[in-house]
């Protein structure tokens, strides 16, 4: 009788131990399964409380640099004569430009070519060699943009008969200062937008999650009026060349964190 009673007691204890073990497993399993759900909820909450805003800024500025390409084109029956004639005229042009204020470090040769000329009207596809054309152009890069008209007039009077390009641009130093200013203004513009949207939603800006700086919108070089080949000095001096203004812009994208 006593033996049977002890066996029943041991069986009861084992049952209690087993039930307790199962209860612990259930609790641990429940805790383990709720941890990822909680993390996912927090992540979604943070994502839903962000605001993407784009800010922009624009400035108009005057060019402070100019590039002028001009030259001499000569034609003769032989390459030697065409080259000699071209060299003499180009030396006069360069000398006149130096006297008018163009510095030696502001000029460089941009193009030089010697091309044969053919007459195809009598000899068909083969053509008849009639002479040679020599083209020689120099490039002036300077910050004295107010002297462009004078330099072109001087060059034409000295013998230049081609003005290929006149381009105005903004110097790197001036451009960098404008970039810095525009970035600050773009950030301020984005913050104002964020404050308005947050206030209308009953929230306020609590921080910044990320910032992306867009490209600076740089203007292409601005061409000035060009002179045709073989122009006279009177025609050249009658055309003013003005730099005008150029527009520079930038954008910035900011993701703000919102709070109450």
Which features characterize this protein?
260 residues; alpha+beta; disordered N terminus; five-stranded antiparallel sheet; three-stranded antiparallel sheet; Alpha-Beta Plaits
How does the SSE layout of this entry go?
Layout (H helix, E strand, L loop, with lengths): L1 H47 L1 E13 L2 E12 L2 H21 L7 E13 H4 L4 E15 L5 H11 L3 E8 L2 H29 L3 E10 L8 E2 L9 H5 L7 E15 L1
Antiparallel strand pairs: 1-8, 2-4, 2-5, 3-4, 5-7, 6-8
Give a verbal description of the structure.
This protein is α+β, with helices and mostly antiparallel strands and 260 residues long. It folds into 3 domains: 48 residues; 64 residues, no CATH class; 104 residues, 2-Layer Sandwich (Alpha-Beta Plaits), CATH 3.30.70.2970. It has 6 helices and 8 strands; from the N terminus they run H-E-E-H-E-H-E-H-E-H-E-E-H-E. The strands form 2 sheets. A 5-stranded antiparallel β-sheet has the order 3-4-2-5-7. Strands 1-8-6 form a 3-stranded antiparallel β-sheet. It is elongated, with a radius of gyration of 40 Å. The two termini are 73 Å apart. The relative contact order is 0.19.
* Overall pLDDT confidence: 80
Shape: elongated
CATH architecture of the largest domain: 2-Layer Sandwich
Number of helices: 6
CATH names the topology of the largest domain as Alpha-Beta Plaits
H/E element order: HEEHEHEHEHEEHE
* Arrangement of strands in the largest sheet: 3-4-2-5-7
**Level of helix content?**
40-55%
Find the CATH superfamily of the largest domain: Protein of unknown function (DUF541), domain 2
Radius of gyration: 40 Å
